[in-house]
C-alpha cells in the first residue's frame, strides 16, 4: 500500500516539469522581442551600415532563430517525453517530429544546434579579427572544436548503444518488395 502510494506520487511529480516548459515559452517571447529589436536596428541604420556590420547583424538574427528553434524543440519534445502527450485536435496543425524525438535524439539535436550556434559566433569573431586579440580568438576556436568533438562523440555513442536495438527491429520488420516485385496476396 505504501509502495503504491510512493509510486503514484513519484509518477505525479512529473507535472513539476510542466511550469518549467511553460517558462521556456517566456524565453521564446524574449528571443522574439530581441529578434525584432535587431530587425528594427538593422533597418534604422541600413543606409549607413558597412557590409561587415550588415553581415554581423544577419548572423545575429540567424543565431536568435536557431536558439528559438532549439527552445521549441526542447519544450515540446521534453513535455511529450516526460510529462504528457499533447492532445492536439486532428484538424489543427501538428508538427511532424512531435512525439518522435526520444531523449537521446533530443540530446543529439541540442548538441548539433550548439555546434551551429557556436559556428555563427566563431564566424562573427573572425569578421572582427582586428578588434579581437589572437589568444581570445584561439580560445573561441578551441571551445568550438570542443563542441564539435562532443557532438561527434555523442553521435557515435548513440549509434553504438542503439545499434543492437535498431538491428533487431530491422530483422523483425516485414521485408519491403523490391522495385521489380509486387506484393501479392497469398
UniProtKB/TrEMBL annotation:
It holds the Pfam family UPF0114. Coiled coil: none annotated. InterPro entries: UPF0114 (IPR005134), UPF0114_bac (IPR020761). The chain crosses the membrane at residues 12-33, 53-76, 138-156. One of its GO terms (cellular component) is plasma membrane. Keywords: Cell membrane, Membrane, Transmembrane, Transmembrane helix. It comes from the Bacteria. It is found in: Cell membrane. It is a multi-pass membrane protein. Its main location: membrane. Belongs to the UPF0114 family. This is UPF0114 protein Thi970DRAFT_00126. The lineage of its organism: Bacteria, Pseudomonadati, Pseudomonadota, Gammaproteobacteria, Chromatiales.
